[in-house]
Amino acid sequence: MAIELKGAPVAAAINERSQAELHRLLESGISPTLAIVRVGEREDDIAYENGASKRCEKVGVAVRNVVLPENITQNDLTHKIEELNADKSVHGVLIFMPLPKHLDGEAVRRTLSPEKDVDGITDGSLAGVFTGSKIGFSPCTAQACIEILDHYGIDCKGKRAVVIGRSLVVGKPAAMLLIAKHATVTVCHTRTVDMPSITRDAEILIVAAGKAKVIGDEYFSENQVVVDVGINFADGVMCGDVDFSAANRIVSAITPVPGGVGTVTTSVLVNHVIEAAKRQNCR
């Protein structure tokens, strides 16, 4: 039976690290503030907004909820983002994606300032991930995967790591973050031939496939560490992209769903807001 790499202790450790910096900023008269931009009334956006707001408020980071109508024009949305870019009292901006179909998400990503892009959606932030420089921030979910590995003492140096998924939200940035940790990384995707033969050779496996329980026992081998990024619902029950019961019989350690990566993601977001406030005020 595998060891469960639970997210709660990781989130608590991130919050504890953030507190000292937060107190220094507050004592200097700087109140780290996150603007959450939501267009429309998507239930999953509202749920994440509520969770992020509660986590911020619990830690001591201020939240400004910017709720915009679903039929907002591109020009009005651009103007609102430009306002937030220019507002020195706002240190981080979280924009929920995808946007309604009539809006150009690429244009929105180009408009947001990388220094306030605390969820790593801009080209500037992603360039920072690829170059290892502090331009913007890495996507929170990808960073959460690395935080879990670090917290549980899983050394990536020299390890064979496989990432399933090539999105800009998780797969590609997770691969680059693993490379920064000196892992040897392979990225698998929907066009990969005989994926199980590749994943079985991995010592670290990060799964962001986007489909419930799609990664079954043929993908695993003994002594693997598996990080399951997926959040799905099957028969009304939350589950990951990994068939947990199958993996649990084979691998050495695995993140649960719920209670794994998702638990850490909002803490990473909060930490990014605090770091953004520090960068913007301590130059």
Describe what this molecule looks like in 3D.
The chain has 283 residues and is an alpha/beta fold. The chain contains ten helices and eleven strands. The protein has helices spanning 7-27, 43-59, 74-86, 105-111, 123-131, 140-151, 171-180, 195-199, 244-248, 261-281, and strands at residues 3-4, 33-39, 62-68, 92-95, 160-164, 184-188, 204-207, 225-228, 232-234, 237-239, 253-254. α6 packs parallel to α7 (171-180) and α6 (140-151) crosses α10.
CATH topology of the largest domain: Rossmann fold
Low-confidence residue ranges: none
- Run of helices and strands: EHEHEHEHHHEHEHEEEEHEH
CATH homologous superfamily identity of the largest domain? NAD(P)-binding Rossmann-like Domain
Question: Do you know the CATH architecture of the largest domain?
Answer: 3-Layer(aba) Sandwich
Q: Average pLDDT, to the nearest integer?
A: 95
- Judging from the principal axes of the Cα atoms, what is the shape? globular
Percentage of residues in helical conformation? 40-55%
Provide the CATH top-level class of the largest domain: Alpha Beta
Using only C-alpha atoms, the radius of gyration works out to: 19 Å
The proportion of strand residues reads 15-25%
Structural class designation: alpha/beta
Helix count?
Answer: 10
Strand order of the largest sheet: 1-11-8-7-5-6
Number of DSSP strands? 11
**First-residue to last-residue Cα separation:** 49 Å
Largest sheet: 6 strands, parallel
**Overall number of domains:** 2
